[in-house]
Amino acid sequence: MISDTLPYFIQMIKQNIVLHALVISGGWHNINLNKYDHYVMGQTLVINKFVLSEDDIFEVNFSVQDDISGKENDKVTCLSLISKNPKYFDSASFYFGDDENRGRNRNPLVKARREYKKDLGVFKIFDDAVSPAFVTITRNPAYGYLIYIRFYTNFDAAYKIKKQVDDALASSADSLRLQ
Fold this sequence. Notes:
Blueprint: E1 2-3, H1 8-15, H2 17-25, E2 37-41, E3 44-53, E4 56-66, E5 75-83, H3 87-90, H4 92-96, H5 108-113, E6 117-123, E7 133-140, E8 144-152, H6 155-178
Parallel strand pairs: 1-6
Antiparallel strand pairs: 2-3, 3-4, 4-5, 5-8, 6-7, 7-8
């Protein structure tokens, strides 16, 4: 289900002018980044110490890539926010409206995986002509916590795949509970 009611963290993303400009334009060449500590690594823009709020500072990675699960010209715009602070993962219900008992999260395999990766949902972040975003958070001992936000040009196809997987996992969780 696509969420129109945006949780705290997603609201902060929506209100940020730079992140909005990156996603809407699909690039950084026409965006003034002079006041940011940034560099380009391959096809990825990296912004260090990006202040989303006084208490929320990240390394931001932005790129546009080919959608390997889509058609030939399909793209995925990737926005990654990296932090060493565990609060986003540990308090995902507050920051992202995460619900451990929602659909697929009841599946034992998903429950085990949620120790290091949480599928937080699909959010309509921007009102512009950009697709809703798939949002996940991952815990990794090497780099910390990665909030991964993906916008697909062929959203309908990507959403259909996600819904099929979610429905299958939720169904298997329900059948396991009945046994």
